């Protein structure tokens, strides 16, 4: 048996200059949030992060249970989460904590409900606003409550960065490392129809944990630390990881235009991808890169520019032909409009010209399945 990653969530800071989702804090409240497990095991442990906090974070109580639906849990599965034997923990500014093992067997595909009681007034939380799940917030210590009627419903995930599971030797684990096309913007909230979810439906005994950050870039800090900066923490340090699946580039090429700056140069993106491949191989990982998805129809002002789209085409031709990666998932061709390949195919477009809907996310997953078999 070994501890491996059963769930991951790559969080961002509340003080960044550009925030795609509004941060928030808590005061004397319980936060209950759903964590969909990619893989299961006989026991589990929870990871909490205050990575981007400026003040210590006190968690007065924590419990985990199998979620029944919404804010309801299955009461007989409810377990206390302890840290160093204590029911309360203080996470230092910039720090993370891992819980003691929790005696709860869980299966792949199970939804855990993690309930945290935050007794004091917190600063804005280390979070993601694009979890594709609803968090439930109630006043007082209600971590043991079977349901939270009347709770405030909040889009996002707060402080919870991972769940490890105690599993048999054998399953291989991939990290989906990239941007919103992994995190799942554009897919149906709460329905688990992201490309990573589709992969987990199809992989059998192996699985993929999701380290996508919406708005994240490969080369430049802005929405989260850039991919090269966070790679060592978010990929090779994940217990059990054997593969890394990569999708970056849209935000490097598009987001600068929102503030009147030029897109990343193709040569710089190629150098960044090359460095990413080197680091993956140095860590003993198999790296599978996706071609950069189309985004010419983006409704957001400044994102779609002739310069950026031309760079995308150059980078994609290099990804397809360079031989730098162990395999290439041609996501761009899988989801592009055949009549105008800079655009997403209409039936795969979430409606904003930049993100995939449920059908598009499935096509993205199938592009990866066509070239990599974790089994």
Task: Kindly describe this structure.
The chain is of the alpha+beta class. It folds into 2 domains: 2-164; 170-369, SGNH hydrolase (Rossmann fold, 3-Layer(aba) Sandwich), CATH 3.40.50.1110. Helix content is 20%, strand content 30%. The strands form 6 sheets. Strands 2, 5, 6, 7, 10, 12 and 13 form a 7-stranded antiparallel β-sheet that branches. A 5-stranded parallel β-sheet has the order 17-16-18-19-20, sandwiched between helices. β21 (336-337) and β22 form a beta hairpin. It is globular, with a radius of gyration of 20 Å. Residues 176-363 form the SGNH hydrolase-type esterase domain. This is SGNH/GDSL hydrolase family protein. InterPro entries: GDSL_Rv0518-like, SGNH_hydro, SGNH_hydro_sf.
């Amino acid at each position: 048996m070994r501890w491996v990653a059963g769930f991951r969530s790559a969080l961002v800071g509340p003080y960044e200059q550009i925030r795609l989702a509004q941060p928030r804090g808590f005061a004397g409240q319980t936060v209950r949030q759903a964590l969909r497990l990619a893989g299961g095991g006989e026991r589990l442990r929870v990871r909490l992060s205050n990575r981007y906090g400026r003040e210590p974070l006190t968690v007065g109580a924590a419990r985990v249970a199998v979620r029944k639906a919404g804010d309801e849990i299955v009461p007989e599965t409810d377990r206390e989460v302890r840290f160093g034997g204590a029911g309360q923990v203080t996470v230092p500014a910039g720090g993370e904590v891992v819980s003691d093992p929790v005696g709860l067997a869980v299966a792949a595909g199970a939804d855990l409900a993690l309930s945290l009681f935050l007794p004091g007034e917190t600063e804005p939380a280390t979070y993601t606003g694009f979890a594709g799940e609803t968090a439930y917030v109630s006043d007082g210590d209600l971590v043991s409550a079977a349901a939270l009627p009347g709770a405030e419903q909040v889009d996002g995930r707060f402080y919870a960065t991972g769940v490890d599971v105690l599993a048999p030797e054998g399953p291989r684990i991939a990290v989906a490392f990239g941007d919103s096309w992994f995190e799942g913007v554009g897919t149906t909230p709460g329905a688990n129809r992201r490309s990573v979810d589709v992969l987990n439906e199809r992989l059998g005994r192996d699985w993929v944990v999701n380290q996508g950050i919406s708005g994240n870039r490969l080369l430049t800090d802005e929405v989260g630390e850039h991919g090269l900066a966070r790679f060592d923490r978010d990929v090779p340090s994940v217990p059990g990881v054997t593969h890394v699946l990569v999708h970056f580039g849209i935000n490097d090429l598009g987001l600068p235009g929102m503030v009147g700056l030029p897109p990343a140069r193709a040569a710089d993106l190629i150098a960044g991808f090359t460095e990413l491949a080197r680091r993956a191989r140095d860590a003993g990982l198999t790296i599978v890169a996706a071609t950069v998805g189309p985004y010419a129809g983006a409704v957001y002002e400044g994102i779609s520019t002739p310069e950026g789209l031309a760079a995308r085409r150059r980078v994609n031709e290099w990804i397809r032909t360079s031989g730098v990666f162990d395999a290439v998932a041609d996501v761009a061709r899988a989801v592009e409009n055949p009549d105008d390949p800079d655009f997403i195919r209409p039936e795969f477009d979430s409606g904003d010209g930049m993100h995939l809907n449920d059908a598009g996310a499935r096509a993205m997953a199938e592009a990866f399945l066509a070239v990599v078999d974790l089994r």
